[in-house]
Amino acid sequence: MRPTTLALALLICLPLHTANLALQDDCTVSVDSSHSGYSPETMTDGIEVVAGGDWTLAGWASAETPGDHWIELSWPEPREVHEVVVYWALDQGFRRSREVQAQVRNGDGWRTLTAAGGGDAAAFDAFIVEPPVRTDAVRLLQPEGEGPPGRPDIMWVGEVQVFGPPFDLEAGPGEESVELELAGGSSDVTFLQRGAGHSLVTVGATPLTLVHSRADEWTAHHLVIDGAQGTPVTIAGQGGVRIAQAEVEKREGGATMDGEPIAQLKDMHIETPLTDAVIAVPDDDRGEEWAAQVRDAVRDACGLELPMMPAGQAREQMGERTVIAIGNALSNPVIEVLYDKGFAYADRVYPGEGGYAVRTVHDPLGAGHNVVTAAGSDAEGTALAVDRLCEHIAQAAADALPRILDIELGPPQSSPNPPTPDSIDGRVAGYLRLRESGDAPEWALNNFATYGIRYNQTGDLEWAEMYRALMLALVGYWDDHGPWPMEWLWDPYWAWDNSEEAPCFTDDERLRITNFLLDLGRTDRTRYAGAFTARNEISGGHQLDQNLCLFVLGDYFWKYYQHSEAREWLDVVDWRFTTSAKYHRLSHDANDYNHAAYWFLLRYARIGGDWTWVENGQFARFVTYAQMMLDNLGYRAQNGDAGSPFAGPQAQMHSMASWFYRDGGHKWAIRRGA
């Protein structure tokens, strides 16, 4: 069956059958190559023009390389082909090839029927096949160097239609011209058309496109147009062409900004009940001692006798009851899960020598149960963390704990001076000036996430105040001027999931920011559709980047809100990551880019718990290859915009390999590079 994962294709609901053979379920579309982010399925989604939206949704583009480019549509059994129509991609004018040939499969080769082109800004070309030909495949071939003016090595197509012999449909007499109004945001404009020629579609006072007509048949047309509500749209038949059943509908669903907002905030689980709690004993010489100290503190405070069990066993009960975990990610599997999911970083470096971090982690698995951690990097810090947790238990003097974020950092960690009210106001004003100047900092969300993460890692509420003020400023600007797509969204996801319980937020503010993140996921699902729908097994870094963004947002909204769009996002990205796990090399074979791409796959493994890539040996092959690229000092060649000879993704890869495989060679690479 022809893939239907592209959300736009799911929205075609015309009240008739069409003769367009490209829309049949058994039609397969293939191409010689695809430009980064583009997918050939967009050429057979039934939408001739996407105006004002993402280029990768508007159609397909080949790789911009010398040589022939082609599009092939095929069927399991021969079809009778009477007409082939190609709509050119719309990008500041139509990207019409200077020559394109319509061909049908003839045995083991291809027979050219007719050719068109010229390089002017025509919206479409129609190839009439007289007499009709029976074939199981049609091809549109752009000879080498015959692409659109200025870009001769690319082929850029919006939609391909293949029609059999005409048959009539009852649609009434039709009108010479039809007036409609856009529904606001993105609108689906659908209509029937009949007559030898075309009609002109005008939005406001601006001509948008020409739409092809068949002489003897009513055919269905579908355009997606962005614009303000009430903007007039005119569909005017030329030379006797008639229009019927013209409709406008507001575009709904996960592929648009127009899905329903979340109306009810999730349960924040601010309090952590102890009545069903279990204490996870770490793999440490003093583990039993520390666990017993916490057990006794709970008994003295509220009379409960909590069970103690090995941390590996307690990890299996996360999501079923409250778990109190002691130690760090290296000694306690419960904390390791939180560490991988971005909730509680505790290892040999954080919270540092003699430092401690006591925190309540609120519903990390989305099952309604909290985790309490008493974490340290060493025995001294862990002992202090246990002491502090026992003090909080005594102060609560009840069978539930309030929100706790009690942190004291030790070397090599240091806590930056928290912001003041004046510095918060100045930072917000600076952001707004930057936006109003026209410099669109899509990276602002990641920049702001820094402050939410600092709050989580220092416990200083002032950082949460800074984060709150900047996020509300960004959301306000989004409401007035958005949407715009953003990249690299995992830090904002972790920052929000770790900070939304902070007491400086009201529930209304929490709901506004939550819906902003949901809308952002919807925007990126549309903007970067090609990264999700293209079925190339050897992935690129930008594909994995966008899939990781959609994965972390989908994880949040499915986990906490059971949102149907989030479920679709998770299903969409699953293929990309599970397929990439079969390889140790990607299409970005260039030092930092290759490391970054596989860092995305590693993050997917850590958050989602799918360790296939690590366990099947492909990660080992990758890091061995990466280590071989280092010089005798542990440095690698720089490339492109990767400025450091030993950048973050590479260090993190070797760190993970050193931990997982217990391979000292990777530790050498880290130390030499540092």
Question: In a few lines, what is going on in this structure?
Answer:
This protein has 674 residues and is α+β, with helices and mostly antiparallel strands.
Overall description:
The protein is of the alpha+beta class and 674 residues long. It contains 18 helices and 23 strands. Strands 1, 3, 4, 5, 6, 7 and 8 form a 7-stranded antiparallel beta sheet that branches. The chain has a 6-stranded mixed beta sheet with strand order 18-17-19-21-20-23, sandwiched between helices. Strands 2-13-10-15 form a 4-stranded mixed beta sheet. β5 and β6 form a beta hairpin. α6 runs parallel beside α8 (461-481), α7 (444-458) crosses α9 (490-499) and α8 packs across α10. Residues 1-18 and 253-258 have low confidence and may be disordered.
Separate helix tally: 18
C-alpha geometry: elongated
Cα radius of gyration in angstroms: 29 Å
β-strand percent reads 15-25%
Search tags:
single chain, 674 residues, alpha+beta, seven-stranded antiparallel β-sheet, six-stranded mixed β-sheet, 18 helices, 23% strand, disordered N terminus
Write the layout of secondary structure elements.
Elements: E1 28-31, E2 49-51, H1 55-58, E3 60-61, E4 69-88, E5 100-106, E6 109-116, E7 124-142, E8 156-163, E9 177-181, E10 185-194, E11 197-203, E12 206-213, E13 219-227, E14 232-238, E15 242-250, E16 272-273, E17 278-281, H2 287-302, E18 308-310, H3 311-315, E19 323-327, H4 333-340, E20 356-361, E21 371-376, H5 379-396, E22 400-401, E23 405-408, H6 421-436, H7 444-458, H8 461-481, H9 490-499, H10 507-527, H11 529-533, H12 541-561, H13 564-580, H14 592-608, H15 612-615, H16 618-628, H17 648-661, H18 664-673
Parallel strand pairs: 2-13, 17-18, 17-19, 19-21
Antiparallel strand pairs: 1-4, 3-8, 4-7, 4-8, 5-6, 5-7, 9-14, 10-13, 10-15, 11-12, 11-14, 16-22, 20-21, 20-23
Helix pairs in contact: 2-5, 6-8, 7-8, 7-9, 8-10, 10-12, 12-13, 12-14, 14-17, 16-17, 17-18
